[in-house]
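Session log. Operator J.P. requested a structure for one protein chain; no other inputs attached. Running the standard single-chain path with token output.
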Amino acid sequence: MKSAIRIMQCIVLAGGASLLLSLSGCGSDLLTYAQDSKRAGIGQYNDGRYAEAAGSFRNAVRQDPMDPESEYWLGLCYEQTRSYHEAINAYKTGLHLMPDQNSVRFNPDLYAKLFDRLAHVIAQYDPANTETDLLVKTASDQKSDEQYWLLGRVFRYRGDADSAMDEYHRSIHLNPENFAVQKELGLYLEQLGQMQEASLVLRDAYRLNPGDKDVDAALRRAGMEPGPGLLVQNRAPKTLPPSGLADPSLSTPAAHTITPAQDPTNPSPHD
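Structure written below.
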């Protein structure tokens, strides 16, 4: 009797192991299919077949719903087909799926592209301010420096300098150690001719990352030489700015943002 029970236990264990191996193999197949769909979609996108490419990227997302890169490409396709609401959702999903920034799996280039395209589409194609108002509410409710940063870029792309700088300052107030925001604000202030405040913000950015070439060049244009002396000067105040800090009539070029057009396989959508 004991032998029979033991045999049955072995059969059950063997069946369970086979099932796990089968499921593992199925997962690998799905990831392979997702990569195949993504490669097909990139080829179709580069050929200008945006609707077909969107279908391929939707297939990739179904097969691997945790891949932010497929969402990024899907958003590019939706921009090309003028499906802007869907593009916004794809970019939001891609950002949500990004690993933690302290993770070895975090891809800073992909994050920057998702972030920038989302800001760009909201800035241009949210006439009722539905997405903008949602960003404001989310930033306020969650006290999110990232959402305030995104708002700053949205308003910068719209040419609303006052609102842009308010949101940048709110982001820095919540997280003064974010070099990327400090750099973006400092360079933007320089573009607007607000040199006194630009110098303060750029000095803070320099302290966070003394090796950044753009910040070093901007400091020299402001009459300051990068070096140890800047590291011991007083930090810029972290209070929120009053209204009327900048002239909204000044141009607001997007010269210091990252766009998707970095290589031939990653073209930028038509604006």
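Operator note: The chain has two domains: 25-125, 137-261.
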